[in-house]
Amino acid sequence: MKKTFFLSFIVFNFIVNAQSNPRSTYKNGIGIQLGGPTTIISINYNHFWTANINGEAGIGLLGAYTGAKYYFGKEYNRQIAAPYVGATFSLIPPFFSKGYQRIIYLPIGLQLMSKKGYNLSLEVASCFIKNYGEIPGLMYDFSFFGGIKIGKNFK
Fold this sequence. Notes:
Blueprint: H1 2-18, H2 22-25, E1 28-35, E2 41-48, E3 53-60, E4 63-71, E5 81-92, E6 101-113, E7 118-130, E8 142-154
Antiparallel strand pairs: 1-2, 1-8, 2-3, 3-4, 4-5, 5-6, 6-7, 7-8
């Protein structure tokens, strides 16, 4: 009887803890980002395949992007704040240059997600820009950038 009770308690504890990480519970989300891979403002959709691996796609005022992020931490721990790293590919049409710009955006950031799925992310990133043409004020194909994102994830 004691073994059954103890085993039931452990299984119940794993189930409760597995559902306590909001990234495991709220897998799909939408958001708006200032800065980021499209430089000005964008809206995005994201999906958590696991509590640690996230895919994202967005469209902005100056282009579109897609990429993935890795969130550090254990999947079964309650984790409101999670640091992350990622890689994103952006394509910006020739609004201010002779041709399309291809941007590889490598963010390092921190996401805060509430128990209800609301989230805020702050990030800094290195950007590698290829075939940028003649963008006023941009002389190099490498720069630092960042962004702030707010959003809501759903079950």
